[in-house]
């Protein structure tokens, strides 16, 4: 056996040497890039995790020990910013999913909008806008009654939000167009944000805004400082790039399992060293030098390493050349993602997961306030629990081969519910025996971490697959337009997020974290939120029973994407050689297909929003059937807002579908008379179901029959 293992090792070494610069046949990534991923992603990940110590949130130690802002202030600020947030995100989606490449006229208009926002934001911050209102009126009186916020500061907070979005929008439009062609869609942000991010990280610790005596002033100035800090990003960009490093799904998961997982070793070591260093400081976690020296030096070191290796990692998404990219219209992007049923399932799961929003970090309470840990001891126990998930993650390819995504995710939610149920029982029944209950909690955290990493890796891989599927449906990944689901979940999660903070206030928790040192108070503050979270985990299993995206669908999707890339590149090359467009190729006759039962279910759950998108997709199907490329939005708006136009539309296009079936020698489920009667009685959902069932079985014309080979239904 030893000889066999040695032989395999020698064979692997030979393979690595032979394909160091050129990948093996059927693969896309050479082995030298594995090393670049290990160092580059590791540095990027460690740098981004270091920044988690800095946040405008109650859980941030800078806020906890220095700014000492009222606990509910953060929720109030989110509510102030939420309404206008919907407007900014509409523009953001449009720019991002078009990769910043827009018509000159559109681009000029957007710059006017963004610079106007910057001017308006500065005006709201500087000018005394609140004086325009009756100082004894109900509005001003109410705003002044909020803890940490006054009417004057509320306008400054709103101005900060407006300024931030104008600034970020203008930068996004400018840098995407300038840097994306060279560095790719996932890495370009590193090149424009690296230097200013380093500067703002330093300013966070050195600007003494936390010394301002007046809490109202301290709130709005801190909000302004952190808004400026958040303008410049430093997310885990290189890992996002490696998730799209190969069109081969097996190669993707291989890279995620080994070089990417091993690259997280730097963060694991940092998770031990950093708290140990902080534990040696005179004030430990309360020491301001954490944010003046420790965090900035650590971040800048890893950020520099990230930039060194960023250029060596490539993204390999099957896509047309940028110069041939078709512009995604706003409504096509908006309804394109809403037609993806898998995004709806993920949205429902996320909505159920919001039941735990607002709860305090359980591990922070357990380690710092129950065990009173600090320094090296704290670092070791955190590292031990974090390491628990590393060994199972190396077996992710096996679990993906052995079990379906549905099975893995259902197991994950049930394991979390069971684990936290044991923790609740330990805290309740052994509340007087802190050491015993604490040990049970740590053991359960260890076990849950072991059960977490494989589903997390599988989930990341499925997210990329769903983006591939979206590109198949829409011609672009529409990652930003996916934020439309936040329209439905945002208001709900914001208000649901107030439930637990209000319960915590009831049990005696406010901005004074020292109350957690009282054993009786600590138990109530922990148990109730965790029980609510357990309910959420159990409910999160239900949507996964409707999941049916598998390897077979993924292979068909990738085959279509590669064909599109080849055809577009060939067309571009011939146009370049001939100096004119002369290639004419039959357009793929691909219709939107969806499981009728699930579409009705999603329409009910989303209070009709899914049905609106379903109507739009049906209109586009009819347009495609008639070989028309324009007018879908106009017909959609007429169906929505013009009385009786819907009746006319269903009668007219019911006939169109019936005739199309006759041409294909197929039998459709209904005719124009049926649609006329149903629409007259307002049964549009039945009309949608009937026509969708027809499109699900409709065969392409003989001239288009090759498209069937890559056809994939949306359910």
Could you name the CATH homologous superfamily of the domain at 341-465 and 495-547? Answer: MFS general substrate transporter like domains
Could you tell me how far the N terminus lies from the C terminus, measured between alpha carbons in angstroms?
Answer: 48 Å
% residues in beta strands? under 5%
Q: Can you tell me the CATH topology of the domain at 341-465 and 495-547?
A: Growth Hormone, Chain: A
What's the gyration radius in Å?
Answer: 28 Å
Number of strands: 0
Mean pLDDT: 81
Low-confidence sequence ranges? 580-588, 702-711
Task: Give your account of this protein's structure.
By secondary structure, the protein is an all-alpha fold. Among the domains are: 341-465 and 495-547, MFS general substrate transporter like domains (Growth Hormone, Chain: A), CATH 1.20.1250.20; 604-706, no CATH class. The chain is 70% helix and 0% strand. The protein contains 32 helices and no strands. It has helices spanning 2-18, 31-50, 61-67, 73-97, 104-126, 138-145, 151-183, 188-206, 215-231, 237-242, 249-263, 265-280, 289-310, 330-338, 341-353, 362-370, 375-387, 390-393, 396-402, 405-429, 434-474, 485-496, 499-506, 519-539, 541-544, 551-578, 596-605, 609-625, 632-641, 645-663, 672-680, 684-697. Helix 8 (188-206) packs antiparallel against helix 13 (289-310). The longest helix has 41 residues, at 434-474. It is globular and about 80 Å long. 35% of the residues are buried. Mean pLDDT is 81; it is low at 580-588 and 702-711.
């Amino acid at each position: 056996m030893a000889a066999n293992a040695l032989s395999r090792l020698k064979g692997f070494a030979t393979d690595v040497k032979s394909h160091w610069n050129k990948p093996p046949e059927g693969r896309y990534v050479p082995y030298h890039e594995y090393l670049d991923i290990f160092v580059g992603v590791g540095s990027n990940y460690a740098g981004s995790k270091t920044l988690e110590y800095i946040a405008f949130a109650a859980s941030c130690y800078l806020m906890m020990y220095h700014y000492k802002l009222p606990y509910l202030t953060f929720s109030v600020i989110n509510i102030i910013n939420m309404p206008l947030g919907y407007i900014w995100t509409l523009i953001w989606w449009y720019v991002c999913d078009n990769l910043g490449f827009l018509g000159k006229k559109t681009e000029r208009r957007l710059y006017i909008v963004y610079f106007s926002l910057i001017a308006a934001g500065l005006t709201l911050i500087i000018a005394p806008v609140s004086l325009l209102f009756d100082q004894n009126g109900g509005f001003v009186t109410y705003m002044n009654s909020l803890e940490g916020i006054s009417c004057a500061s509320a306008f400054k907070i709103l101005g900060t939000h407006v300024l931030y979005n104008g600034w970020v929008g203008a930068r996004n439009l400018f840098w995407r167009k300038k840097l994306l062609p060279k560095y790719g869609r996932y890495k370009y942000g590193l090149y424009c944000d690296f230097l200013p991010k380093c500067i703002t990280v330093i300013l966070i610790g050195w600007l003494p805004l936390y010394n301002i005596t007046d809490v109202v002033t301290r709130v709005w100035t801190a909000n302004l400082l952190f808004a400026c800090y958040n303008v410049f990003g430093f997310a885990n960009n290189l890992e996002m790039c490696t998730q799209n490093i190969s069109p081969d799904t097996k190669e993707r998961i291989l890279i995620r399992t080994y070089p990417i997982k091993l690259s997280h070793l730097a963060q694991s070591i940092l998770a031990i060293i950093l708290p140990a260093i902080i534990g040696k400081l005179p004030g430990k976690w309360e020491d301001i030098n954490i944010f003046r020296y420790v965090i900035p030096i650590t971040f800048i070191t890893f950020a520099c390493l990230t930039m060194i290796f960023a250029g060596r990692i490539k993204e390999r998404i099957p896509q047309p050349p940028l110069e041939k990219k078709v512009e995604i219209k706003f409504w096509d992007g908006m309804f394109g993602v809403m037609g993806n049923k898998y995004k709806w399932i993920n949205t429902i799961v996320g909505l159920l997961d919001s039941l735990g929003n607002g709860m305090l970090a359980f591990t922070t309470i357990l380690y710092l306030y129950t065990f009173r840990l600090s320094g090296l001891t704290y670092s070791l126990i955190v590292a031990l629990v974090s390491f628990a998930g590393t060994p199972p993650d190396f077996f992710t390819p096996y679990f993906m081969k052995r079990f379906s995504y549905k099975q893995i995710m259902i197991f994950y939610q049930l394991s979390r519910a069971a684990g936290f149920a044991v923790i609740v029982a330990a805290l309740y029944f052994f509340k007087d025996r802190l050491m015993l209950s604490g040990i049970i909690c740590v053991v359960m955290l260890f076990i849950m971490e072991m059960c977490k990493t494989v589903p997390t890796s599988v989930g990341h891989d499925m997210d990329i697959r769903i983006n591939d599927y979206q590109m198949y449906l829409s011609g672009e990944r529409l990652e930003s337009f996916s934020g439309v689901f936040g329209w439905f979940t945002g208001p709900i999660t914001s208000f649901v997020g107030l439930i637990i903070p209000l319960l915590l206030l009831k049990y005696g928790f406010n901005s004074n974290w020292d109350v957690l040192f009282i054993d009786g108070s600590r138990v109530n503050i922990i148990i109730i939120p965790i029980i609510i979270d357990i309910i959420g985990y159990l409910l999160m299993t239900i949507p996964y029973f409707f999941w049916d995206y598998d390897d077979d669908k993924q292979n068909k999707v990738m085959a279509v994407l590669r064909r599109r890339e080849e055809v577009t590149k060939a067309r571009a090359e011939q146009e370049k050689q001939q100096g004119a467009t002369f290639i004419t190729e039959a357009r793929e006759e691909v219709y939107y297909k969806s499981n009728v039962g699930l579409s009705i279910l999603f329409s009910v759950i989303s209070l009709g929003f899914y049905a609106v998108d379903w109507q739009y997709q049906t209109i586009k199907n009819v347009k495609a059937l008639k070989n028309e490329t324009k007018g879908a939005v106009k017909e959609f708006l007429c169906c929505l807002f013009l009385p009786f136009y819907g009746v006319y539309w269903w009668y007219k296009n019911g006939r169109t579908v019936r005739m199309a079936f006759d041409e294909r020698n197929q039998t459709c489920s209904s005719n124009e008379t049926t649609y006329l009667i149903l629409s007259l009685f307002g049964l549009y959902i039945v009309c949608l179901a009937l026509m969708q069932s027809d499109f699900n079985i409709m065969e392409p014309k003989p001239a288009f029959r090759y498209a069937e080979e890559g056809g994939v239904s949306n359910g």
